[in-house]
Design the sequence.
């Protein structure tokens, strides 16, 4: 058995179980977690010891002593309808008093906002006041208008620690409820640096400082029943403070309004078309975070240790695909792996020496219990992540949680050992070479572009949402396909056109979101650039409601390119004719029946007979269209399934003008293939939990037959 | 057997078959059709003879002699994307050259419009011209912008005659293709009057002049394959001519733009929120049509005959629920009955002495053929129409088509005789008295209000559309429920509030349509009026996407009243909690499982725990909510089924604060009951094609049990 590339959790009291597990999985590193301590002999167990480090909440004495330097957040009250000219709004109604407290120390007239949501007008501060009981009294209201209060609040509890605390029932253990403090305050910042310096000196046994994470937690707010109320893994609303807002005003020449963050209750989620002020705020915070992270990393390096960032929790402002990240000096990033897309989100991060993925399931009692299925979850996690690994492997994997729990599930441990072995084999066989990739580059086009590489359609990290899985499926499919994938913003296309080297532009999502694009499609710079580019030979793939923005008689602004448009109930007077052809077409050649379209677009119709409708059920499911020298493919929805991944694979090839299946083609969509020509080998993997066989066409035209057990894989040498 | 109240078709050569059918159905009137002649002895067959009369196409010699007085139409070309600074658009591409011809006799620079659809800008006439081959050459175009030509065209063929001609293969029969001419031309108008006068004098055998219809055909345009391309039963785009447009400009002080009619390709359909210019055009044409109809009716009356209007074909401008109609002097209206809603559309028309419904199926070879099921269609038509008849009966019924065809289907004739008998029984038993009605008045709220009473959600007359049946179902249900129904416009509510006497306001439809309302929901006058009214005790029923207009953080602007809102992908960061209760509630008491929601709204969620979610499947299907002293009910969709009609019935009662089932309640939603207290009788009808039984609660609390065969009915006397 081989060793290395695997990190396991350990803790005081679980030393022997750790040693057993280390041996079983060939681990070479251990780590502690939030709430657990490294055993004294950790450094003797493995080559490397990771220690969790909390920059912004590690010192609760500091937090207690500096209540004016705690982290803040902008929150929005419930909407209250006025029934008379006076009304009272309780800002905290629905919020969790243990997590947040309204900031009345800074003048609410300056920092809060009362808005008439029926007109959108801001109510002048003379017409409202915070009363002694904390409610807001509005006078001169217009009856039957809705009002809200946007208020600045202090964060009394770090959301992740709160989540862990409540979920693991730490009540009564005497543990502190940890309050986050803000690095914007020079005094706090100095304390952060000196604390780290002190800690580094005191922990010679630690090789890797695992920052969990830096300064600003993503938006995670609980309600008055201590349940999740707001969650946005990309949320910046919890990164505010009066000092930061003042600094922003000084730097940008205008003050951010509370509304620029709470955004009418959408809380500036990444699904919203980002406003100019919100973009400015992102850039502002990213510059600050980068500067401070560089300083902390320098401290770590000065102590002879490695700096690792956890991609989660207080990661806001770091933006691994942003302009500053590669220059931070970080040695590594570790993150949770929930799918192929989240694997690529980690493994593709530039500017670090290595990446690490924490596989599911965590060794937590919700899964590691009688009747739980840790083996099943581990297999699903591995087949999903493995598709991405074949394109761009993580450098390391690992697990989290309590070692003692895992020890009770030997079949899981056997499988985890097999995964570790398979992971190391991948590295051994590929030997650092790149897999063969079809000469097709796909650019995923949305408002975020490169900044949110592999991070589209995500609300809470890797969680399933009814409204997003249909589009996440496209990203999930791409994450394991042998094509180049890049992410492109509308702004780039509008200023510089589609970049050289891109063969296919993909626009997917629900109408009005930042991913589909919303009103940016009213900008002729965008539509003309794309029309010209496709007409000259480019490929366009649209999924769901691409280019959707009702205007000028069209729902899809690129309907002329796509050959389809959407009936939203206004053009019913125009007869729609569809002549679906279910005969052979390159795009649907592997799709025997109807595609799974999930919660995709409804009421899409072909704009004319030039559109080839390949799948239809009272609305278009799959269609293709020629446009000058270019081509488009429309898909109503694409939840991830192996068949849908194949459908997208073929759509991308066809749109790029590649109408023959390339080498390393598997005739079974459930079997993914990766070839490493420079290493002289290739591998076939079964991306399902049922046995599969496939015929794989090699570059010389020979056909190899592979038979794989559930989740199985097989390597072969090149002839 | 009784006699009367029934009209049958007859024609030369089918005299004996007519006499047989007249006897069998107890008919008292006969009629001819488009393309058939009355037999010489028609007047001896029955009490009344109807003759079809075509005001605007009856004299093709006149049409041929006055090509400059033909009816015109505004059409929109295909959208053409410019690939260079010059482009050519063929206005007629996709149109049927036998139906329409571009009008180049009137200066296109004045009457046509070239529009850059990518910017919405009108291209100045200096930059385009109509070439010798009829195409439009545009110069100075912006590459990759889309362009259209809106053009005025001559109508060369009346659409109904064209449809009949093509469908019945009149090619080679020597029949003329009839061209419509425009009453706006004084010369043509004089000719219309004198022609009618002459015709009236020449036809003493005719008792009823059946106008089919007056001047302007609804929009019905064919494509270059002679298939339907555009259809709008309410369309006014074919009511234009240069003379009419000039008159409009003189009267209204501004010129109508071509775009005011073609409306970016939506052709100002009733689903579009009507613009001010389009409303002006409607009012303008309605005034004109009313004035001219009054004159024609006077001629008919002067000749001692009755004037009957066919509600269809050239009915545009008559607007039976408009302000002029009741004063036209018409004796009767006849129309096709395809459902309960279309029955009420006819039977509720004010200001005529009697109404007549033409039942389905027509005696046409598409149904009356070996393998056809005329009996099945007749039963379905009757059970649907009968629900409405019980609320407000038509005065007469009848059939259309070829008598000789029907004679070959004796089981159909038996059933038709039974229908005629049942229809007469309804009149005999009810004796002209009104049915008992619950003290609940429902107002259907949309942009059209009373003008389009029972005419909402309709594209082509009574045709099924995937995007509308879910909302038509609510109208269909209401048409047979024992509640008062009225139609109300947003403008009325904004200016005068909800009228006295209204208990429940119903807003239904897809977002952005004239029925849901679109951006009118941004007007605080509307939202505040409705909030105040519901809060004071009113009831609101929302179906699908009521009050939908994305603004200020809400999708449904009345979310505070409805207790539900719609997730359109922008507020995913906010956790949605739904605690559906499937236990007893008045609204869902007769709904055992999930409701049929058709193509209703997706992703609707409760706004808070105050909302009672009664049916839920990852999204709200049925919910109720209290609002001050008032109540609301939300339904995701309501295609017509007996269970859904019951659901709406209960929703309306509950919203109105009536939480006990009223008298004449049937415990089986498939059995409808009508009571006629003033006539001392009641009837139970089976509105399905399967046997049904029901327990009906009488006003004294006694329960009567009825058992009914398929489509059956049973009368009983009041005790």
Sequence:
């Amino acid at each position: 058995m081989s060793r290395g590339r695997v990190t396991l959790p350990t803790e005081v009291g679980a030393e022997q179980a750790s040693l057993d597990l280390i041996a079983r999985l060939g681990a070479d590193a251990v780590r502690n977690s939030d709430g657990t301590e490294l055993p004294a002999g950790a450094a003797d167990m493995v080559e490397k010891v990771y220690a969790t480090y909390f920059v912004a909440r590690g010192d609760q004495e500091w937090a207690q002593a500096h209540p004016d330097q705690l982290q803040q957040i902008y929150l929005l009250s419930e909407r209250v309808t006025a029934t008379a000219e006076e009304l009272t709004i309780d800002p905290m109604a629905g919020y969790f008093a243990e997590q947040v407290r309204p900031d009345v120390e800074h003048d609410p007239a300056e920092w809060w906002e009362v808005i008439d949501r029926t007109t959108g007008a801001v109510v002048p501060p003379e017409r409202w006041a915070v009363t002694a009981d904390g409610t807001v009294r509005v006078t001169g209201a217009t009856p039957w208008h809705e009002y809200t209060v946007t208020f600045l609040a202090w964060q009394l509890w770090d959301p992740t620690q709160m989540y862990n605390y409540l979920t693991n029932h730490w009540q009564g253990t005497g543990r502190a409820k940890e309050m986050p403090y803000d690095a914007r305050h020079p005094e706090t910042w100095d304390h952060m640096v000196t604390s780290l310096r002190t800690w580094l000196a005191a922990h010679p046994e630690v090789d890797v400082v695992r920052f969990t994470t830096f300064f600003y937690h993503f938006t995670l707010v609980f309600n008055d029943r201590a349940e999740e109320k707001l969650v946005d893994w990309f949320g910046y609303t919890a990164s505010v403070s009066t000092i930061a807002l003042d600094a922003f005003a000084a730097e940008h020449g205008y003050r951010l309004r509370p509304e620029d963050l709470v955004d009418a209750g959408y809380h500036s989620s990444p699904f919203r078309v980002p406003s100019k002020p919100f973009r400015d705020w992102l850039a502002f915070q990213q510059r600050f975070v980068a500067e401070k992270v560089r300083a902390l990393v320098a401290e770590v390096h000065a102590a002879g240790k490695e700096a690792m960032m956890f991609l989660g929790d207080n990661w806001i402002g770091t933006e691994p695909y942003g302009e500053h990240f590669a220059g931070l000096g970080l040695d590594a990033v570790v993150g949770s792996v929930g799918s192929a897309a989240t694997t690529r989100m980690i493994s593709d991060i530039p500017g670090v020496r290595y990446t690490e993925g924490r596989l599911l399931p965590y060794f937590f009692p919700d899964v590691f219990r009688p009747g739980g299925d840790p083996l099943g979850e581990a297999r699903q996690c591995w087949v999903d992540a493995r598709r991405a690994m074949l394109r761009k492997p993580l450098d390391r994997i690992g697990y989290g949680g309590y070692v003692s729990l895992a020890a009770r599930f030997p079949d899981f441990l056997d499988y985890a050992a097999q995964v570790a072995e398979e992971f190391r084999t991948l590295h051994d066989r590929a030997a650092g070479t790149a897999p063969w990739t079809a000469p097709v580059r796909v650019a995923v086009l949305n408002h975020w572009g490169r900044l949110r590489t592999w991070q589209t359609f995500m609300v809470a990290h890797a969680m399933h949402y009814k409204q997003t899985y249909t589009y996440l499926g496209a990203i999930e499919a791409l994450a394991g396909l042998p094509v180049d994938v890049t992410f492109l913003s509308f702004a780039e296309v509008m200023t510089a056109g589609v970049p050289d080297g891109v063969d296919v532009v993909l626009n997917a999502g629900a109408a009005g979101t930042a991913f589909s694009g919303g009103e940016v499609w009213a900008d002729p710079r965008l539509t003309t650039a794309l029309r010209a580019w496709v007409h000259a030979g480019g490929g366009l793939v649209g999924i769901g409601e691409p280019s959707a923005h009702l205007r000028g008689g069209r729902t899809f602004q690129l309907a002329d390119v796509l050959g389809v448009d959407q009936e939203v109930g206004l053009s019913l007077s125009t007869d729609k004719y569809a002549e679906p052809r279910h005969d052979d077409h390159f795009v649907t050649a592997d799709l025997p029946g109807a595609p799974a379209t999930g919660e995709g677009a409804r009421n899409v119709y072909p704009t004319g007979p030039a559109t080839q409708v390949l799948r239809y059920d009272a609305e278009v499911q799959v269609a293709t269209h020629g446009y000058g020298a270019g081509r488009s493919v429309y898909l109503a929805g694409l939840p991830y399934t192996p068949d849908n991944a194949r459908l997208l694979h073929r759509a991308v090839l066809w749109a790029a003008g590649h109408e023959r299946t390339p080498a390393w083609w598997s005739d079974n969509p459930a079997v993914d293939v990766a070839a490493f020509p420079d290493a002289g080998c290739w591998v076939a993997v079964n991306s399902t939990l049922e046995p599969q066989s496939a015929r794989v066409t090699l570059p010389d035209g020979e056909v190899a037959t592979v038979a794989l057990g559930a989740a199985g894989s097989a390597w072969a040498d090149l002839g």
